[in-house]
Amino acid sequence: MCVLVFLCEFWYNVFVMKLSRRDVLKISGVGFVAMSMLPRVAFASRNSVLSLRTGVQPNGKTRLVIETSGRPSYDISYPQNQLVISLANTSVGGVSPKLSGDTLIKNLTQVQNGDKLNIVADLRRSIAPIDKSQVMILSPNGDNEYRLVFDFVAGASNTVSNGTTASVANQPAKKYVIVIDAGHGGKDPGCIGKGGTREKVVVLSVAKKLKKELDAIGFKTYLTRSGDTFLKLAERAEIAEKRHADLFLSLHANANPSRSTKGYSVYTLSEKASDEEAQKLAETENAVDKIGVSGFSEFSKEIRVALSALQQRAVAELSEEYAADCARAMDNASIDRLPGPSIRHAPFAVLRSTVPGALIELGHLSNAAEEKLLKSDTHQNKLVRAIVKSVKNYNFDV
Hints:
Layout: H1 2-15, H2 21-25, H3 30-36, E1 47-57, E2 61-68, E3 74-77, E4 82-88, E5 90-91, E6 105-113, E7 116-123, E8 135-138, E9 146-152, E10 177-182, H4 199-216, E11 220-223, H5 233-242, E12 247-254, E13 265-269, H6 276-286, H7 301-332, E14 343-346, E15 357-364, H8 368-375, H9 377-393
């Protein structure tokens, strides 16, 4: 009977009260226990644009609304007399924009760029960068799906409604918890470069630097290992669970039979690998131990499936958003990327968790030039700065 009462209340909260994805992951009591013990596999889904429209708000503000089938992950750029909204993992929806004649936007076009969709707004006058306080992501409501909403004015600054200039906060409003996992360790050295560089040493060095920088700007961070310690993959994921982490970052360095292959890559969890390279990497990383994932036998199959589906979707979307932020930050820092998609997916055991996260391959130790870079403090600091930027840009409040 208690299970039935819980399930009725749970579905009411999800569909009627419209809990956020992070609320779904943090439900207390029996629901959270059930979800945390279910098979943990997340699936990345393709997003699409459903509508584009503009309008005028009080004080002469232009409003741009982008409606999407799933929660959008976005980036903004400002070419001359243009505003470009880049949507990660999104395809052209084939919609015709609905434009108001009294706004700063003359025209809207959709341009597919790999796995990203660029919404290009041609402007009548130049604008200043739009502060995050002037951007809203609205959840589905009535006949509307997710809506990404931008408000802005012409000129050198965009202001909030009380007339004061909007500013970007340097520190998070609350102490979000981040668990940083330095891959391998102890009896498991990971990849070994031609020059003898061990993956476990490189990633621990980067992890410690990353922890120091994130702590300094107001995050609460934990390391899965602070020394040369061997941990099973399940133990690493469990640390993130026990710390009630908001984000889990697993750091690694790659190897490839081709010595010319180089560049970083970012992975999220999926049941099926996005490509052969991702599959091979997952098999290598998972080989250190084998994890058996069991269900929660006290619940019926129907309940386990229902809870698992919600968990999978929430974790997948949150992880995908962070991965997109991380890839952008790496690219903006001019760090070489492994050729191919900016975000890849594979069944990594270490990511099987109710905590959103990503596995970041910092580069290739099998490439002689990149091995030297990965050993250097200068390049490690460059990697850390990019990851810190991605964490700061990540929207934890969803």
